[in-house]
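Now for a chain:

_____
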Amino acid sequence: MNARRIYTYGGKPARRNLTVADMQAMKGRHRLCQTCPSTREEAAACADAGIDVLNTSDADLPAVRAGAPETFTIADLPMTAHLTADDILRAAVRAAEAGADAVYTPRSLRMVEMLAGEGLCVQGHLGLVPRLSTRRGGLRIIGRTAAEAVELADDFRRLEDAGAYAAEVECVAAEALAAIGPLSRLVTHSIGAGSSGDVVFMFLVDICGESDPAPAHARAFADLRSIRNRLADERLRALRAYRGAVAEGSYPDAETSVSMLPNEHEKLLEALSRRQDFHG
C-alpha cells in the first residue's frame, strides 16, 4: 500500500502506511501485524521488516516515531503515569501532537468517551487486563464459557458506543473472538486471542526470544536471550581480566601510554633534582 498523506493532530504534514479508515475498511479482509518497540533502533528494524502497526509508551513515542516515521503508531498512556481526567487528556493531546496516530487506554468507558470526544482515535482494552487481573480471579483466559463470551460481547458494544475505534483483545478464547469480532465495528488487536483478530499483536521481547518465561500465547522467532547472556558473560570476563591486569601491573603498559618527547625526560629529572622542596 502506498503511504497516505495526512496531517497529524499537531497540524504537521506527514505520511503513513495506514490510517484508521484503512484498518476499518480492511476489517475481516486483511490481517495486519503489530509489535511494541521502545527505541529508535527497534522502531527502524520494525519498519524495515514491514511491521504494519506499532505501539509504544507516550514517553518513548519521539524515539519510535523517529525510527519509523511512516508506520501507524499507537501511544500507550500508562495508568500510573497519568491519574486524573485532565492528566489523561493532556497526555493524549501531547502524544497526538508528537505524531501518535491513536492513543491506547485500558481505563473506564468515561475516559474513552472523553478522549474520543476531542477527536482522538482511541483504542481500548477487552478481555484480560493484566493490571486489573485480580478482578478476574487472576491471569486466565476470558470467554471459555458461552455465558462469559456473551458478557464480553456486551463489553465490545459498550466500548464501541463510547467512541473507540479499536480494542486490544487479550487472553480471550479464540472461538469467542472469532464469533464476536465480525459483529462489532471495532478493529480487534488480538494478543493471546487467536488468529481471527484484524491485527495480531505480540510483544517484541516475545518475538525475539527474550522473555523468560514467555507467555503461553507467544512464539519466539529468534533467541536474543542467549545472545544477551553471552554478551553478559563476555562483559564479566573482560571486567575481571581488566581488574587483574591493573593489579599485576600489566596495564597500562608501553603500548597504552604516551611518552615524553626525546631528551625531555632527562631534562625533567635534572630540573626536579635542583629543587630542594617539591612544594616550594
Notes: The chain is about 40% helix and 15% strand. The first strand starts at residue 4 and ends at 7. Residues 224-248 form the longest helix (25 residues).
